[in-house]
């Protein structure tokens, strides 16, 4: 996922910088200048970055499914219990053997 995220983020930033440079030719720097560059870069990223956006979405989906599958496996094997619960169970077993 990291590679897809970095690629998409760099491309979005590049579009923002390009929009800033183009607007610099026509406008004096101001808050409006930054807002216009942000809106323009969002529109351009929607139009031109659909494939990297889909790759990032797929990477996030894959990672989420992997994490959910790992948690389900931990539940099936009993490894999802908190440490204090496991320690209490071990203490109870040691006391039962000592009596």
Topology of this structure?
Layout: H1 2-26, H2 31-48, H3 50-77, H4 83-98
Helix pairs in contact: 1-2, 1-3
What characteristics describe this protein?
99 residues, mainly alpha
Task: Describe it.
- With 99 residues, the protein is an all-alpha fold.
- The protein has helices spanning 2-26, 31-48, 50-77, 83-98.
- The protein is elongated, with a radius of gyration of 26 Å.
How would you sum up this structure in a few lines?
Helix content is 88%, strand content 0%.
Instruction: Give the distance, in angstroms, between the N- and C-terminal Cα atoms.
Output: 54 Å
Radius of gyration: 26 Å
Which term fits the overall shape?
elongated
Low-confidence stretches: none
Would you count the extended β strands for me?
A: 0
Quaternary status of these chains? single chain
User: Sheet with the most strands?
Assistant: none
Encode the helix/strand succession as letters. HHHH
What share of residues is helical?
over 70%
Strand content: under 5%
Mean pLDDT: 86
């Amino acid at each position: 996922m990291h590679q897809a995220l970095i690629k998409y983020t760099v491309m979005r930033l590049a579009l923002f910088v390009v929009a800033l440079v183009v607007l610099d030719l026509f406008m004096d720097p101001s808050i409006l200048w930054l807002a216009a560059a942000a809106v323009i870069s969002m529109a351009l990223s929607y139009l031109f970055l659909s494939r990297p956006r889909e790759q990032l979405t797929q990477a996030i989906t894959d990672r989420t499914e992997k994490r959910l599958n790992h948690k389900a496996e931990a539940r099936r094997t009993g490894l999802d219990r908190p440490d204090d619960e496991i320690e209490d169970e071990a203490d109870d077993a040691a006391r039962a053997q000592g009596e």
